[in-house]
Specification:
Layout: H1 19-30, H2 49-64, H3 73-94, E1 99-104, E2 107-112, H4 114-132, H5 137-159
Helix pairs in contact: 1-5, 2-3, 3-4
Length: 162
């Protein structure tokens, strides 16, 4: 498994790549494609219209690069629900301060607004789901690299180290 810096698409590479390296990267990018027929309609368990709109926006964009598929459906729905909840928390925070006064036996103390942690939690959830369903370029290219490594191993087993 590869470890290191986040991967970039071949078009974004600036260093000198050998012909073999370029072909390998093209092959990696092609190998993460799956069918996408189940993505034509948003999941019926999305929590609100914000989540449905986000679903449609993301599917439209990811279909352009042909890297989203049926296997991403549940993670994509989870991302959209987290996004909708993040928007709700952000809208609530718009009218509040980040710190609030809390009465105690000893008087009033200033504490962090609990909505800040709720918003942060949904942002973290969005990042996790984004990575799982390939919304980040790094996630998509890592998946391609793993699949290409397996193909290379199969070729080497069959034909030797050419």
């Amino acid at each position: 498994m590869r470890v290191g810096r986040p991967r970039k698409p071949l078009e974004m590479q600036r260093g000198n790549l050998t012909v073999i390296s370029m072909e390998r990267r093209k092959n990696e990018e092609k190998k993460v494609k799956t069918g996408s027929s189940q993505l034509s309609r948003p999941s019926d368990w999305l929590i609100d219209e914000v989540a449905v709109k986000e679903w449609k926006r993301i599917v439209k964009e990811l279909k352009k690069i042909n890297l989203i598929g049926n296997l991403d459906r549940n993670n994509l729905g989870g991302y959209c629900n987290a996004f909708a909840n993040y928007v709700k928390a952000t809208n609530i925070l718009r009218d509040q301060t980040f710190y609030i006064d809390r009465e105690t036996r000893n008087g009033v103390i200033v504490v962090k607004n609990p909505m800040v942690d709720i918003q942060k939690g949904y942002a973290e959830e969005m990042r996790r789901f984004a990575s799982l369903c390939g919304l980040t370029i790094d996630a998509r290219l890592k998946a391609a690299a793993i699949k290409t490594d397996k193909t290379q191993e199969d070729i080497t087993k069959k034909f030797g180290n050419i």
